[in-house]
Amino acid sequence: MIQKIKRLFWLNKFIIFNKNNWLRNYMLNTKKFKKLSEGELYGDTEDLVDNLFTLADSRLKQAATNTPFNNQKTRTEIVDNILNNEKFDEIIETGTLLGNTTEYFANKNIPVTTVEISELYFLISKIRFLDKKNVKLVNSDSSNFLFNLKPSKRKIFFYLDAHSQDFIPLQKEISHCLKFENSIILIDDFKVPENETFGYDTYDSVELSIENYDQLLNHDLYFPSYDAKKDFNTRGYVLIDISGSYNNLLSNEKNLLRYKKTD
User: Fold this and answer.
1) 249 and 120 share one domain
2) For 219-252, how does the pLDDT look when each residue is reduced to its tens digit (9 = 90+)?
3) Are residues 58 and 72 in the same domain?
């Protein structure tokens, strides 16, 4: 009982005096407080509020302990090889979250643009990368951002990892990114053909797989060829060489296998 009284006292003091705190202002917003009081929160905000006093149970804690590419050391080594042997003009990442993979990209001394739809994660990452002059953070829907990019011959390394919302715009995002003919696309959470050790995402019973994204079949595709249990995380992925310009580099990567189309 004493602990509850102390917490109520702290909460009232917090609401009255911490005028610049985002949570205090969130709670004093009539529309937002209505959602909070009626249990209509969802996604990142719900996760944060539910675990405000026990962040150990939050997605924030899980994300904070991750290394690049969801703790996949082998995938990191593959991307290392690509970025160290090819000079890209820019890296574009969708789905910043807390910025673990963003920081990895930033250390390559290549201009990095990373897009995050969640205002919470955007603000956290904004603070994290204040001293990184080569990192540009954008708080936006990933599809809107990508569609505003004018296709060019610039060499861009696309990392598409913003498909955790209810609406998945990946189909249109891929079609637009494929217009950048000198670029490579890396898509996270993708089904790896004939390799059941890798996990993948499914939305409304639709798998992230080549069967459902057949526009990829007109390009050179590379999938991981190793056992996913080799790493801590087992999420699948695919690399797309849009114009075939990187065939020598990707074909010589021992942990990748070029996809062979079947009639």
Assistant:
1) yes
2) 999 999 999 999 988 999 999 999 999 999 999 9
3) no
